[in-house]
Each structure stands twice: as structure tokens, then as C-alpha cells.
Design goal:
alpha+beta
Length: about 180
């Protein structure tokens, strides 16, 4: 209600409604309950392997955009700005799937979002570690393949999350 007051009660198109991603953890004696909305990731390390918890729908939608940009780069001499203009219809199509059945779910004004979140329970194990990551960090292993998913938490512990951030941004800067 407060948001719509700020818009002077003008109709706001679905694509322009603010939203965000969230990860929520609730700790119990022997388990952890999790809830994920949007493009965030939980990495769970139980000392044997890293399990990834996330909404894969967003990865599939993002892949369509990245594949289009790569094909346009390889096939034409378009500038980055021209390629972005060509890919915009795909981005808009993807964004219009926000908080829809068959689409993806984010935290926003939709009451149905919580009913469609990624959620569950994780058994607590000895020396277990969990990393909550935005897509700006998880892209270090899933999209850009700078790191292996099993290395991410160890690197964050040893070198700090700023190191991961710098490596991701360096790659993005080097390859528009």
C-alpha cells in the first residue's frame, strides 16, 4: 500500500513492480529450514561435497539471454549497445514471467510467491558450512566457471568474499 501511495496510485506495469531475492534460514536443534525466492543460492558443505539449493528456472531464463548475446557477438559486427537492444525482447519476456505459474518467484507484492518458493529442510551435520549467495557471487562457479562449486566456500574462508567479488568483476570488465 505504501508503494502504491508513492506512485500516486498510477497503474504500474508488472515488469516495473519492485522485487528482490531472499534467502531465509530458520535453525532448529537438529535441522535447518530454508526458503529461497529469486536468484539466490545456498551452498551447503557437509565436508564431503557441496550441495546447491536454488531456483534453476532463473538459470534457464538467463542462459537464453547469454546464449543470444554470444551468438550475436560471434555472428555479427554489432556493437555491445546494438546487441543489448536486440536481446531486450528476451529480457522483457523473461521478466514478465516473474511471479507467474510456469515462471519464477521473487519477493514482491505477490502473496502466492511464498507458496511457490524453493524450500525444505537440511539435517545439521558436524562441521557443516552454509554459504548464502546472490547471483553476483554464485555466477563465479555456475555461469563464469571461475571457481569450482566445491571451492567457493573454502576460497571465501581463506581469501575472503571480496576476493570472489573482485575475480567476478575482473572477468566481467574484461569481457563486456
Amino acid at each position: 500500500k505504501e508503494y502504491y501511495k508513492l506512485t500516486d496510485d498510477k497503474e504500474v506495469e508488472a515488469i516495473d513492480i519492485p522485487s528482490c531475492s531472499c534467502s531465509i534460514l530458520k535453525f532448529y536443534k537438529d535441522k535447518i529450514e530454508y526458503l529461497l525466492l529469486g536468484d539466490c543460492t545456498l551452498l551447503v558443505n557437509n565436508n564431503e561435497s557441496v550441495k546447491i539449493l536454488k531456483d534453476e528456472t532463473l538459470c534457464e531464463l538467463d542462459k537464453k539471454v547469454f546464449d543470444f548475446m554470444k551468438e550475436a557477438k560471434d555472428a555479427t559486427n554489432l556493437t555491445l549497445k546494438e546487441r543489448k537492444a536486440e536481446v531486450m525482447p528476451i529480457i522483457i519476456e523473461n521478466r514478465l514471467k516473474k511471479n507467474t505459474v510456469g515462471g519464477y518467484w521473487t519477493l514482491e507484492f505477490s502473496k502466492e510467491a511464498v507458496d511457490n518458493c524453493v524450500s525444505g529442510f537440511i539435517d545439521i551435520e558436524y562441521k557443516m558450512k552454509i554459504m548464502m549467495a546472490s547471483d553476483g557471487f554464485s555466477c563465479g562457479y555456475d555461469r563464469y566457471k571461475i571457481f569450482d562449486k566445491n571451492e567457493m566456500m573454502k576460497i571465501a574462508e581463506i581469501k575472503g568474499i571480496d576476493y570472489i567479488y573482485r575475480k567476478v568483476r575482473e572477468l566481467e570488465k574484461d569481457d563486456e
